[in-house]
Amino acid sequence: MSFLRLTNPKFIRPFIVIWFVMLLLSPITLEGINEFGLFSFIGVLGAIFANSTGAGGGVVFIPLFNQLNFTEQQSVATSFAIQCFGMTAGAFTWWFHYKREKTQLRLWQGFKRIISITTVSSIVGIWLVYGYHLTSPSSLHQSFSWFSLALGLFIIVTVFFLKPHRERSQLYLFDWFALITIGIFGGALTAWLSVGVGELLAIYLILRRFDISMAVATAVIVSAFTVWAAIWQHTLIQFEVYWQVVLFAGPGAVLGGVFAKTLVTHLSATKLKLFFAFWLLIIGLVGIK
Fold this sequence. Notes:
Elements: H1 3-6, H2 9-25, H3 30-36, H4 38-53, H5 58-67, H6 72-101, H7 111-131, H8 140-160, H9 173-193, H10 197-207, H11 212-231, H12 243-267, H13 269-288
Helix pairs in contact: 2-12, 4-5, 4-6, 4-12, 5-6, 6-11, 6-12, 7-9, 7-11, 8-13, 9-10, 10-11
């Protein structure tokens, strides 16, 4: 399978047919389809944001679920389930891009190593939270508001104030310790908010002057592994997923993850990032108040 096949109509058509059949076979009524249909668009939107910035789709889903009066557990669990679709599609998209262009991607030398060490650390972090039943220092609403505010400010800084410099590709001993720390702390943060490790990883790599595309790609792939490691807590151990929402938003997230790069190219990555940055700032400020 190649990257081109994923973006080819030959892939999309059977995917949509299977999705339609799943809807017909599900116990959801026609009224339910009308009620939950909007979540398909939300899934696409979340996946586009996640796979164009390296941030998890939870920054789109969590505020929406709060407005719908989901419990904190339902919000996080449902966000994880949707991201299992969108982040996985995005991860494959970036991985095939790397495999297809790796002879030309000289600045991506540490790509696999960064993914490996951060993924393992993130899974350790997320299961330390679940295994020892560690609770978040504050409510989901407050924590997410502060996190959104910080993420929005960082995106604005990267767009306006970080000037292009010569990128680096070599990993030093300091980087290895930093990646392990980011993985463990980011994994714990992800367990509480459904977002965290991808954002922290992308921020670190960009600040360390690694190639921006590689920073986003590694963040997406690490996030994909992390949400798959976490989803079992919310399904097999304690089922908290709002499956009706996932049935619509999940496949939508797949489409968004597959086409994110193409759409961002046409819409201008800078404008898209600024739009989401100001949106995150609004969410953060409103939540803090």
